[in-house]
């Protein structure tokens, strides 16, 4: 299994230093290696389980947090908002 | 070569539930920044979502309105990507099993009532993201998380539209349905409906679609028309120059009237969808699914057809009413009184009433206008008791005060002058003051009569009847 | 005898017959903390002042004659991945070094409502990823039985605090064995409850479909008492089960007569130390002598569980940990150039290697083109494993296996070899994969003097059966021994 480790790191928004890349890749290979011997299993659907349905929430308003509580853990705050580096349209 | 444009649309509509989709925070627009937030919608570590039952109901209603198959057993999935307006680093959405699938909607394309069926691929529920505020006064961006968790439905169409006009008709129809079934406020200016547009072009007569490009950030329907036309032209120019279209995502800038490359196919985001483990299977009782279907009001297309047939309205006029459920309701109530012409009710609602609402940026429900008052005012005009011009004064009063039409007419002395001698005196003084126009008329420039009628109307403060004035003016000039 | 050495059940009785006060209990526990915490290092945050206030409040209420929960006044320490309002909650990560939640986890609300006393927040492997507590970004916790050894993980602070008398009870969390394995290594009782029986609201998620909060204590009765408080439906957690729960202390004395214990051969294979197998088999023999029927069974898919576990847990973790991006809370890199760089530096500096490794793995198995081969396959395998257990429980009331393949290992011994570290989980992960309850019961010691644990596994919501079996064994062996003397 070839892993494009730099691509994965980019997706995960992680910066893996060059000297660490190889170690990471090796360790990931090892773990994925265990997976290689998984049996093929037929069956398609997972994710829905009608035997275990979810109870939904009533559309009733509950109190929000005070704004100072919302912002108290933010690294940088201005004008009642969290500050981030300038964004460009995604 | 001639080309056909192929268009598919993804419409995102915010639902007007009381609370957000996964927490009990108020779902409201225009609150102070970061004031409708809790640990859940701000994605604090340890918090979990709980799904609002209204969101499911609303989406199913829309599914019924768009003739979809309802998957009453379905699930939610995580769409993973990083952006500062997405506090959890993923959006809870639906991937392979949407709540509604395989529907269609008929849209009316012309005044003859020609319709076209546009396929609806799917409707799914998801959460909205927050808002980024860009301020040039400093180097960063500000994050307002109020909109995080506002419930959205995404309505994905088949690539069935072949012109910007068809796309516009589709969007108008979707908006009218959302409003009619009462699940969205449809306030474009508040961003409660937004769309992404897929456009490709192919040689006329071909049945093989070209490579498509997606345009994001389209916030108005008129913007959608411009974006489609721009994109089709861009693609045709590339093909005509011997180039080829690359699949890409573009960003529409409506101010500039241009689109810009956001990312190419190679940079396409890998959202790593997987089933949301914090939520279990959504299972809606089939009986409830049917109840929701039965609860739907008359849908806009049916209403449109009825307005055209029963009230003799042109499609354009009827459509303006149908698009706005409040207007449609008032129209029907006024027409039901049978005291005036439905066409005149429609004209007033789509004309002066809409203009006044737009000027003040309010809705009909924010005014005091009643069907009785509106119909009475129109009746007064139709019977010649007040002029059309006087009606413009009356409508402002009955929109914003508790007075009746009759009271306004009386208070403001707007009753039409029917005493011919009084009108003749006005005509006489206007003709004396406008000798040049009288000369011109005599030389054969008979169209100055309109100008003279206007002067008479002004002199009578709108209380004269313009038809009578015209007759009197012509008679007076010819006897001079 | 010092109050810190006593069980919750004993202390509860003493409080009621006024032979001690909650304040004295808290004082005793804090004096124990003052004496040994330097060596054991179980706590990230000590909340001495609020704990003493809580104890005082209990004394006042009891003096007024109010009838309080059996756990009122009992010191219950909390793993640092469970959100505590206005109290630092770090997940032992640099990423959350300064995070103070504005809300309480549901289990915290329950502990407060039961008037328990919280001495502090406990060390753990960073974001609960690890089996030794060595992945804490702050410091390593030591095994009270021998300070050169790990206390197990990820709830290593919890197991060490309880085993050393620095807390009477503790909350842990268990995603792949993180309550049971440290309980085994430290010689205490730890219950990983049925998935859905304890609310996860406020537990900083590692792998949402596997995580479960559970009680840890020095006796089975204590664990049952704490579980009584923790379990129950919570409307804040959509995955929490709708059901009524019995009083889990009620049938602890019933014994094991009529129970069929399954012994799955796959859990006694090559990877498991002989001394562990011997100890567990001996314990099973005791239970057989006490009236249980013992039956050899087979769970052939066990061999695949580790792979399935690492795929599912890592995939969910990669998504759950995406929120740590330096925007809204916690660590943000000091120097960066633009948004993407801020994200990458914050996450690379904020997370330790093991966390990064699992995020990478999880991101990879979910990425385009690999989802079917890895994630989907693992999920299907999960269903098969659950099915196998369900079949086993047609003929068995519970299964007994080793909890860990060996006794605790030395600090530093496995840090560079993730696979070897992961092997510590081979006996426990299946239970999470299948959503079942699992209970660690101490059953002797290894040659190095460190505890051995056996794992009792039952069908969903069979905690009562597991606890009464554990209690029966505890009675047979005359308890799980005194709090060890703290030494290297």
Automatic annotation (TrEMBL), chain A:
GO terms for molecular function: ATP binding; glutaminyl-tRNA synthase (glutamine-hydrolyzing) activity; transferase activity. Its EC number is 6.3.5.-. It catalyses: L-aspartyl-tRNA(Asn) + L-glutamine + ATP + H2O = L-asparaginyl-tRNA(Asn) + L-glutamate + ADP + phosphate + 2 H(+); L-glutamyl-tRNA(Gln) + L-glutamine + ATP + H2O = L-glutaminyl-tRNA(Gln) + L-glutamate + ADP + phosphate + H(+). SUPFAM superfamilies: Glu-tRNAGln amidotransferase C subunit (SSF141000). GO terms for biological process: glutaminyl-tRNAGln biosynthesis via transamidation; regulation of translational fidelity; translation. Pfam families: GatC (PF02686). Keywords: ATP-binding, Ligase, Nucleotide-binding, Protein biosynthesis, Transferase. Allows the formation of correctly charged Asn-tRNA(Asn) or Gln-tRNA(Gln) through the transamidation of misacylated Asp-tRNA(Asn) or Glu-tRNA(Gln) in organisms which lack either or both of asparaginyl-tRNA or glutaminyl-tRNA synthetases. The reaction takes place in the presence of glutamine and ATP through an activated phospho-Asp-tRNA(Asn) or phospho-Glu-tRNA(Gln). Heterotrimer of A, B and C subunits. Belongs to the GatC family. This is Aspartyl/glutamyl-tRNA(Asn/Gln) amidotransferase subunit C. The lineage of its organism: Bacteria, Bacillati, Bacillota, Clostridia, Eubacteriales.
TrEMBL record, chain B:
GO terms for molecular function: ATP binding; glutaminyl-tRNA synthase (glutamine-hydrolyzing) activity; transferase activity. It holds the Pfam family GatB_Yqey. Keywords: ATP-binding, Ligase, Nucleotide-binding, Protein biosynthesis, Transferase. Gene3D superfamilies: 1.10.10.410, GatB domain, N-terminal subdomain. It catalyses: L-glutamyl-tRNA(Gln) + L-glutamine + ATP + H2O = L-glutaminyl-tRNA(Gln) + L-glutamate + ADP + phosphate + H(+); L-aspartyl-tRNA(Asn) + L-glutamine + ATP + H2O = L-asparaginyl-tRNA(Asn) + L-glutamate + ADP + phosphate + 2 H(+). It comes from the Bacteria. It is an enzyme of class 6 (ligase). One of its GO terms (biological process) is glutaminyl-tRNAGln biosynthesis via transamidation. Residues 329-477 form the Asn/Gln amidotransferase domain. InterPro entries: Asn/Gln-tRNA_amidoTrfase_suB/E, Asn/Gln-tRNA_Trfase_suB/E_cat, Asn/Gln_amidotransferase, Asn/Gln_tRNA_amidoTrase-B-like, GatB, GatB_C_1, GatB_Yqey_C_2, Gln-tRNA_amidoTrfase_suB_CS. Its EC number is 6.3.5.-. NCBIfam families: gatB, PRK05477.1-2, PRK05477.1-4. Heterotrimer of A, B and C subunits. Belongs to the GatB/GatE family. GatB subfamily. HAMAP family: GatB. Allows the formation of correctly charged Asn-tRNA(Asn) or Gln-tRNA(Gln) through the transamidation of misacylated Asp-tRNA(Asn) or Glu-tRNA(Gln) in organisms which lack either or both of asparaginyl-tRNA or glutaminyl-tRNA synthetases. The reaction takes place in the presence of glutamine and ATP through an activated phospho-Asp-tRNA(Asn) or phospho-Glu-tRNA(Gln). This is Aspartyl/glutamyl-tRNA(Asn/Gln) amidotransferase subunit B. It comes from uncultured Anaerotruncus sp. The gene is gatB.
Automatic annotation (TrEMBL), chain C:
Pfam families: Amidase (PF01425). The active site is at residues 79, 154, 178. Residues 24-467 form the Amidase domain. Keywords: ATP-binding, Ligase, Nucleotide-binding, Protein biosynthesis, Transferase. Its EC number is 6.3.5.7. GO terms for cellular component: glutamyl-tRNA(Gln) amidotransferase complex. PROSITE patterns: AMIDASES. Heterotrimer of A, B and C subunits. This is Glutamyl-tRNA(Gln) amidotransferase subunit A.
């Amino acid at each position: 299994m070839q892993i494009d480790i730099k691509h994965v790191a980019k997706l995960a928004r992680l910066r893996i230093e060059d000297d660490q890349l190889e170690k990471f890749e090796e360790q990931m290979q090892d773990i994925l290696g265990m997976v290689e011997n998984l049996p093929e299993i037929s069956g398609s659907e997972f994710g829905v389980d009608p035997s275990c349905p979810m109870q939904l929430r009533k559309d009733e308003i509950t109190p929000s947090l005070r704004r100072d509580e919302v912002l108290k853990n933010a690294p940088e705050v201005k004008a009642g908002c969290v500050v981030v580096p300038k964004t460009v349209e995604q | 070569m001639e080309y056909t444009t192929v268009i598919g649309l993804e419409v995102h509509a915010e639902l007007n539930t009381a609370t957000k989709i996964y927490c009990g925070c108020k779902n409201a627009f225009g609150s102070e920044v970061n004031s409708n937030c809790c640990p859940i919608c701000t994605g604090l570590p340890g918090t979990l979502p709980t799904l609002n039952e209204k969101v499911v109901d609303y989406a199913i209603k829309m599914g019924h309105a768009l003739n979809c198959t309802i998957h009453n057993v379905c699930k939610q999935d995580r769409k993973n990507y990083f952006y500062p307006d997405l506090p959890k680093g993923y959006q809870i959405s639906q991937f392979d099993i949407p709540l509604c699938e395989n529907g269609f909607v008929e849209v009316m394309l012309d005044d003859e009532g020609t319709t076209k069926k546009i396929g609806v691929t799917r409707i799914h529920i998801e959460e909205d993201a927050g808002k980024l505020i860009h301020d040039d006064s400093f180097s960063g961006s500000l994050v307002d998380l109020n909109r995080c968790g506002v419930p959205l439905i995404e309505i994905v169409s088949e690539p069935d539209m072949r012109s910007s006009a068809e796309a516009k008709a589709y969007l108008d129809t979707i908006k009218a349905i959302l409003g009619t079934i009462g699940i969205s406020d449809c306030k474009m200016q508040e961003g409660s409906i937004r769309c992404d547009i897929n456009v490709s072009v192919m040689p006329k007569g071909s049945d093989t679609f070209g490579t498509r490009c997606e345009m994001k950030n389209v916030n108005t329907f008129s913007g959608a028309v411009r974006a489609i036309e721009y994109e089709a032209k861009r693609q045709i120019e590339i093909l005509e120059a011997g180039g080829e279209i690359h699949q890409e995502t573009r960003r529409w800038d409506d101010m500039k009237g241009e689109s810009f490359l956001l990312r190419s196919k190679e940079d396409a985001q890998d959202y790593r969808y997987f089933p949301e483990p914090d939520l279990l299977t959504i299972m809606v009782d089939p009986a409830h699914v049917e109840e929701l279907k039965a609860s739907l009001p008359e849908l806009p297309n049916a209403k449109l057809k009825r307005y055209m047939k029963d009230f003799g309205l042109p499609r354009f006029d009827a459509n303006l009413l149908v698009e706005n459920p409040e207007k449609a309701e008032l129209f029907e109530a006024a027409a039901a009184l049978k005291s005036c012409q439905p066409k005149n009710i429609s004209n007033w609602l789509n004309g002066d009433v809409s203009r006044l609402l737009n000027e003040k940026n309010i809705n009909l429900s924010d005014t005091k206008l009643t069907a009785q008052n509106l119909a009475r005012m129109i009746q007064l005009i139709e019977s010649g008791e007040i002029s059309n011009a006087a009606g413009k004064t009356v409508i402002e009063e009955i929109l914003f005060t508790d007075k009746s039409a009759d009271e306004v007419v009386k208070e403001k002395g707007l009753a039409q002058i029917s005493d011919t001698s009084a009108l003749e005196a006005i005509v006489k003084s206007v003709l004396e003051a406008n000798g040049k126009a009288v000369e011109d008329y005599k030389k054969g420039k008979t169209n100055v009569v309109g100008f003279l009628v206007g002067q008479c109307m002004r002199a009578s403060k709108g209380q004269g009847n313009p038809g009578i004035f015209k007759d009197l003016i012509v008679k007076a000039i010819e006897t001079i | 005898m010092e109050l810190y050495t006593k069980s919750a059940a004993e202390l509860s009785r003493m409080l009621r017959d006024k032979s001690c006060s909650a304040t004295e209990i808290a004082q005793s526990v804090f004096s124990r903390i003052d004496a040994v915490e330097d060596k054991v290092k179980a706590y990230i945050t000590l909340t001495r002042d609020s704990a003493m206030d809580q104890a005082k409040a209990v004394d006042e209420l009891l003096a007024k004659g109010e009838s309080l929960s059996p756990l009122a006044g009992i010191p219950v320490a909390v793993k640092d991945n469970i959100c505590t309002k206005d109290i630092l909650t770090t997940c032992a990560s640099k990423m959350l070094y300064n995070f103070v939640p504005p809300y309480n986890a549901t289990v915290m609300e329950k502990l407060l409502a039961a008037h328990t006393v919280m001495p502090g927040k406990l060390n753990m492997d960073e974001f609960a990823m690890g089996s030794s507590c060595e992945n804490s970004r702050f410091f390593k916790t030591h095994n009270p039985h021998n300070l050169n050894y790990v206390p197990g993980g990820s709830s290593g602070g919890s197991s060490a605090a309880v085993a050393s008398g620095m807390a009477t009870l503790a909350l842990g969390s268990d995603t792949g064995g993180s309550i049971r394995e440290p309980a085994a290594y430290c010689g205490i009782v730890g219950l990983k409850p049925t998935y859905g029986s304890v609310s996860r609201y406020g537990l900083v998620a590692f792998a949402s479909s596997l995580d479960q909060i559970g009680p840890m204590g020095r006796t089975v009765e204590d664990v049952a008492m704490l579980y009584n408080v923790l379990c129950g439906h919570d409307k804040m957690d959509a995955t929490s089960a709708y059901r009524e729960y019995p009083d889990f202390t009620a049938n602890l004395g019933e014994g094991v007569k009529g129970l069929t214990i399954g012994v799955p051969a796959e859990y006694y294979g090559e990877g498991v130390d002989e001394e562990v197998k011997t100890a567990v088999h001996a314990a099973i023999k005791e239970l057989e002598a006490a009236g249980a029927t013992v039956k050899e069974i087979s769970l052939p898919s066990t061999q695949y569980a580790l792979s399935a576990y690492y795929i599912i847990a890592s995939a969910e973790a990669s998504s759950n940990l995406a929120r740590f991006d330096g925007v809204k809370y916690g660590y943000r890199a000091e120097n960066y150039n633009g948004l993407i760089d801020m994200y990458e530096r914050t996450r690379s500096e904020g997370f330790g290697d093991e966390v990064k490794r699992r995020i990478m793995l999880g991101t990879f198995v979910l990425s385009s083109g690999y989802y079917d081969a890895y994630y989907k396959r693992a999920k299907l395998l999960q269903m098969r494993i659950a099915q196998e257990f369900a079949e086993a429980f047609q003929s068995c009331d519970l299964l007994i296996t080793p909890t860990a393949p060996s006794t605790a290992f030395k600090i530093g011994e496995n840090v560079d070899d993730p696979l070897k570290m992961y092997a510590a989980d081979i006996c426990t992960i299946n239970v999470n994969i299948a959503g079942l309850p699992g209970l660690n019961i101490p059953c002797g010691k290894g040659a190095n003097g460190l505890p051995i644990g056996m794992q009792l596994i039952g069908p969903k919501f069979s905690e009562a059966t597991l606890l009464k079996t554990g209690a029966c064994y505890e009675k047979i062996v005359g308890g799980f021994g005194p709090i060890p003397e703290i030494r290297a």
